[in-house]
């Protein structure tokens, strides 16, 4: 049942957990069938539900939400290496060009791909293991009767604007600190906060409608730019790690690729700051 503005926000909590469980179950089935993007969808499902549990933190009672968030975080982390290597390999292939030594580039891509295959196998083993099956059963049980605090009786129309505003203000507080020279980790943190705003806005949109949807769209724009930025940072870090075992000539090619990815950060930072400050 879709909550209305007058319904207690606790109803939306149960709906969010149930929906999250369905998303995760669907992603697990994708892994079982060996479908493309399956591991990524498991990771996204975990992150989305963790975000919802964080959004409704003050509405929850007991320790169940903390335990669930920890289990979801562990599952997402188990899927992280495979997804990261998949993105990095695709990005390296995209940014390599004719001036690079083709043999070196092929070796680098082969190394990344071999790591990806191994990581994907490890991820699939975790996703299809008993721990994930137990997590899904727990989510189903919790969705039916989540333990809630008295604040969960607050009408959705009153509680949700405050919850969404809190996520937006936290994002804005950190985004306001960003400068073109700010450290990569700070840009990454703002990306995560933009994602949290998007998830929160999408959850709240079931009640708040167009205004929350507009917030989600804007947050998605921020997240897209910051996601591209993070991909280049991750690619530069991964390629730098390969230098240790590379000979001088291959290290030179790696260095060229690393600098290319680092240089790609600058226009993305400028585009984000321009978009953010005129919004």
TrEMBL record:
SMART domains recorded: CHAD
InterPro entries referenced in this protein's UniProt entry, alphabetically: CHAD_dom, CHAD_dom_sf
Taxonomy, superkingdom: Bacteria
Membrane-crossing residue ranges in chain numbering: none
Pfam families the record matches: CHAD (PF05235)
Gene3D superfamilies, alphabetized: CHAD domain
Positions of the CHAD domain: 6-279
PROSITE patterns: CHAD
Name used for this protein in its record: CHAD domain-containing protein
């Amino acid at each position: 049942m879709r909550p209305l503005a007058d319904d207690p926000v606790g109803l939306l909590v149960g709906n969010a957990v149930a929906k999250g469980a369905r998303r995760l179950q669907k992603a697990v089935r994708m892994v079982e069938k060996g479908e493309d993007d399956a591991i990524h969808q498991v990771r996204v499902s975990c992150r989305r539900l963790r975000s919802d549990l964080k959004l409704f933190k003050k509405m929850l009672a007991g320790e169940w939400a903390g335990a669930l968030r920890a289990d979801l975080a562990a599952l997402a982390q188990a899927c992280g290496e495979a997804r990261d290597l998949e993105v990095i390999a695709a990005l390296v292939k995209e940014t390599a060009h004719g001036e690079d030594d083709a043999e070196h580039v092929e070796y680098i891509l082969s190394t990344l791909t071999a790591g990806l295959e191994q990581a994907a196998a490890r991820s699939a083993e975790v996703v299809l293991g008993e721990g994930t099956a137990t997590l899904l059963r727990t989510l189903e049980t919790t969705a039916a009767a989540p333990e809630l605090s008295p604040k969960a009786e607050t009408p959705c129309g009153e509680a949700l604007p405050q919850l969404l505003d809190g996520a937006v203000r936290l994002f804005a507080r950190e985004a306001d600190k960003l400068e073109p020279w700010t450290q990569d980790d700070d840009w990454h943190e703002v990306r995560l906060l933009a994602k949290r705003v998007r998830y929160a806005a999408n959850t709240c949109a079931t009640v708040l409608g167009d205004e929350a949807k507009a917030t989600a769209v804007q947050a998605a724009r921020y997240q897209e730019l910051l996601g591209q930025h993070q991909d280049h940072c991750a690619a530069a870090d991964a390629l730098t790690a390969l230098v240790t075992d590379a000979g001088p000539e291959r290290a030179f090619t790696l260095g060229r690729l690393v600098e290319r990815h680092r240089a790609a950060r600058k226009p993305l930072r400028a585009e984000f700051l321009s978009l953010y400050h005129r919004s």
